Amino acid sequence: MNNKNRVIFLDNLRGIVILLVVIFHASLTCMEQSPTWWYIHNESVSIIFSLFVVIADTFMMPTLFLVSGIVQAKQSAKSNPTLRIKKRARRLLLPWIIGVLVVGPYLSIKMANSLGYKTSWNQMITNDFWGDLFTQGPYWYLSLLFAFFLITSIIPKRFIESLQVIFQKKRTVYFFLLFCLIIGFWIGSTFWGADSWINFVYVLSFQPSRILTYFAFFILGLAISKQNTLSNISGWKWNLLCILSAALLVVLKGNPDDTPIILMSTAYALVTLSWTLRLYSFAEQKLNKSTNLLNWLGNNSFTLYLIHLPVQIIIGSIILDYKLNSVMMWISQIASSLIVTLVISKLKDLLFKKQVV
Fold it and tell me: In this structure, what are the phi and psi dihedrals at residue 75, rounded to the nearest 5 degrees?
């Protein structure tokens, strides 16, 4: 959307969630029992970061897909379909290609080292990267979002309009989301594993247990773009649901082998539903305003998303030998991402001003 058509709270919400993604990736480095494949592991760890990872992992990306669905619906109403596809391809696929081909091999080397497999740049680029060590890093979101965009572009408008009518009732929204979340997580966990990733011909990379969740929230965004179905999701009942569902998920995650898949799926669905909708409603009620910090974060959130992980891994690898405690390592990774983003934004401002002159 151009500046005149922007919805302030959506920009602010997207910026805050991407900041949470940055914090999430820094927390993976400093959490207890981090994934063995994670790119770097700090010697000092804390259970606080583990708790944050368990909870934040459920609602961050669904919120981004929800916002993206709303934005697409608003754009679709005011632009030519062919022109819209070209713009989205340029916006999403160009950084995806650069990220996967330039940053991907570096992340794969770090992943191989964590798994105890030694390799070189030459071997990685010519062989290993195109096999089991292939990774899109954080850029999987870009290609999957573009795929959702293409799929929903061919859906008849009448179908979307019918959903807009159906989703006017909040109970219908809740039932739709719970059904998709529970079924999707249960099927994905049963056949592939709750945390497993699959790569589809190097183009799409996603977790099977989460794919239906993301698409459901994207569809929801398309359907509620012209109404306030998710407004006023607040009060003690929603806050209590967020707390209790998160506590249940943390307990179940502590004993995954003894937990039935359907129970884990239900806990995941409740946390995802409550935290995503509560965060969206909070943003609509409290963040529909402009401040210098929110404006900067909203305007630079895409850059922050693109560069934060390689910056974190590079800085983290450099200071790993200094054996910082978990909090200092965590702060260093987050701060480095924000500083580099700030530098890039200043350079963009300077270049833009020169072009204007």
Answer: -70, -40
Count of helix runs (H) and strand runs (E) in the chain = 14, 2
- How far is residue 137's CA from residue 205's CA, in Å, rounded to a whole number? 9
The two tokens of residue 138 are 């954080």
Nearest C-alpha neighbor of 19 from the set 273, 281, 283: 283
What are the pLDDT digits (tens) for 49-64?
999 999 999 999 999 9
Q: What is the dihedral of CA 213, 299, 6, 8, to 10 degrees?
A: 80
The pTM (predicted TM-score) of the whole model is 0.94
In degrees, rounded to 5, the angle at the alpha carbon of residue 151 between the alpha carbons of residues 149 and 155 is 110
346: burial class by Cβ within 10 Å (0-12, 13-18, 19+)? Answer: exposed
d(Cα 31, Cα 52) in Å, to the nearest integer?
Answer: 9
Contacts of 161 (CB under 8 A, 6+ apart): none
Q: For 238-271, what is each residue's pLDDT tens digit?
A: 999 999 999 999 999 988 888 999 999 999 999 9
Q: Which helix (H) or strand (E) holds 332?
A: helix 326-356
- pLDDT on residue 77: 63
Which H or E run includes 199?
A: strand 198-200
Q: Is 46 exposed, middle or buried (0-12, 13-18, 19+ CB in 10 A)?
A: middle
106 is written with which tokens? 């570096």
Q: If you average pLDDT over residues 126-154, what whole number do you get?
A: 94
d(CA 289, CA 286): 8
What does the alpha-carbon distance between residue 315 and residue 327 come to, in Å, rounded to a whole number?
Answer: 15
Q: Are the beta carbons of 213 and 180 closer than 8 angstroms?
A: yes
Asked if the model's pLDDT at residue 226 lies above 90, the reply is no
3-state secondary structure of 59: helix
Q: Which amino acid is at 357?
A: V
- Look up residue 38 and give its DSSP letter: S
CA triple 86-91-95, angle to 5 deg = 125
Please, what is the end-to-end C-alpha distance for the chain in angstroms?
Answer: 25
Ramachandran class of 289: left when φ > 0, alpha when ψ lies in -120 to 50, beta otherwise: beta
